[in-house]
Every structure is written in C-alpha cells, then in structure tokens.
Amino acid sequence: MFRRRREPVPFAFVAEADRFRSNVTPPPRESLSMTQITARSLVGLTVVAGLVGSLLFGMPALQPYKATGKAQQSEASEGR
C-alpha cells in the first residue's frame, strides 16, 4: 500500500546494513586469568576506599557549626 522511500545516505555500507546478516559467530570470550581478576579487584577496592575516605573526611565539614558558649574575640581587641 504505502511504499517507504529510501533516502540517499553518504556511505553505501550504511544503506546495505539492514539487509546484511552474518552467519559467522564471534569467537568465545577468553576467561580472565587470576592476575587480571586480582588487578581488577584491587582497582575496584581502591576506588571504593577513596569514596569512603572522602565521605569520612568530608562529613565533619558538612555538619552545622555549633558555637561554644564563649563569644569569639580577636586578640587585637583584648587590650581594650
């Protein structure tokens, strides 16, 4: 009934991509070695430890300031 009109594309392989089906299966993924697993774990732990450390050191700065009972005065005003 309605025929879809194809628009010109700059690359021929893009136009033919919807028609092309490959019958070649990709090779299976290689399993990770123990060294790679250890390295990835250490990198992950380092990132997590950095985030936790920044939270621990940053939390006091986020707390509201509580003034002590003594009013603060500068040393310059003590001699007056």
TrEMBL record:
Keywords: Membrane, Transmembrane, Transmembrane helix. This is Uncharacterized protein. It comes from the Bacteria. The chain crosses the membrane at residues 42-62.
